[in-house]
Write a structure and sequence with these properties.
This protein is of the alpha/beta class. The structure holds flavin-adenine dinucleotide and FE2/S2 (inorganic) cluster.
Length: 241
């Protein structure tokens, strides 16, 4: 039951786990997530479904930043989760576009650090439907980056680090601005990362009149829309994560 089939360290404090969960894998779509519990009394941890093998397992990538994610990081292959609930949440809007619509749809993903994890399944989906998006992936330093080889296969990848240890020096917004100032136009920009990074991506997108989607990781309880914990107010309207 929800056993860890494979565990791999991808980057500093960042781990990949394949978890046996065939029923979740069968219907998961890019943009959806699961809530996992390590033990009966464990905290509920929301994590994006990064990949899936339809009859077998789901892939999660997480950063060990606090009590529960560190506890997860101490688990190994053969260990089991008490609970894995999902798939939860709405799928990315991109999955509702037809292959015809996707043929001319130009998307740029902007991913900061662990934000690469939620971006990856959307990029993979587009690639498998004949689209090749741009991806700008950024981190403080090279040791925090992961999945660059995978993304390179499926997208036009731009890597940015604060210390120039990999790719261009600077911030993801510097890279995006360069691209936009060179005349490239997107139908949509999708940003996943820290709140401050997403704020500056939104401002840049607004400057160039490009629709922008961001991923708000508000604190969650049930993950089903019942408890209201993840409510946010956007433009005077209440929305759920
Ligand atoms: C829908 C959703 C999908 C997510 N997907 C992923 C994923 O794929 N990979 C991944 O690594 N993380 C993801 N997260 C964040 C992850 O759930 C939290 O990092 C985790 O719950 C932290 O638990 P903890 O007990 O280890 O840390 P805690 O001890 O609870 O917190 C450590 C620090 O992180 C901050 N923090 C905790 N939760 C959040 C949050 N939701 N948003 C912003 N800051 C937070 C706390 O304020 C604190 O400063 C996702 C969150 C949501 C809501
Ligand atoms: S966590 Fe979103 S409504 Fe409960």
């Amino acid at each position: 039951m929800y056993s860890i089939i494979r565990k791999r360290k991808l980057a500093e404090d960042t781990y990949l786990m394949e978890i046996e969960a065939p029923r979740i894998a069968k219907s998961a779509l890019p943009g959806q997530f699961v809530i996992v519990k390590t033990t009966e009394r464990g905290e509920r941890i929301p994590l994006t479904i990064v990949d899936y093998d339809r009859d077998k397992c789901i892939t999660l990538i997480f950063k060990a930043i606090g009590l529960s994610t560190r506890e997860m990081a101490s688990m190994g292959e053969g260990d089991s989760f008490k609970d894995v609930v999902g798939p939860l949440g709405r799928a990315s809007n991109l999955v509702s576009l037809t292959d015809n619509e996707l043929a001319d749809y130009r998307v740029a993903f902007v991913a900061g650090g662990i934000g690469i994890a939620p971006v990856y399944p959307q990029v993979k989906w587009l690639y498998e439907h004949g689209n090749r998006p741009d991806v700008i992936a950024g981190a403080k330093t090279k040791s925090l980056l992961f999945y660059t080889d995978e993304l390179q296969k499926m997208s036009d990848l731009h890597v940015v680090t604060d210390d120039e240890s990999y790719g261009m020096k600077g911030m993801v917004t510097d890279c995006l601005r360069n691209i936009l100032e060179n005349g490239v136009r997107y139908d949509e920009i999708v940003a996943v990362g820290s709140m401050i990074m997403m704020k500056f991506v939104v401002e840049l997108a607004r400057e160039f009149s490009i629709p922008c989607t961001v991923s708000l990781n508000s604190l969650m309880v049930d993950g089903t829309g019942m408890c209201g914990a993840c409510r946010v107010t956007i433009g005077g309207k209440t929305k759920f994560k």
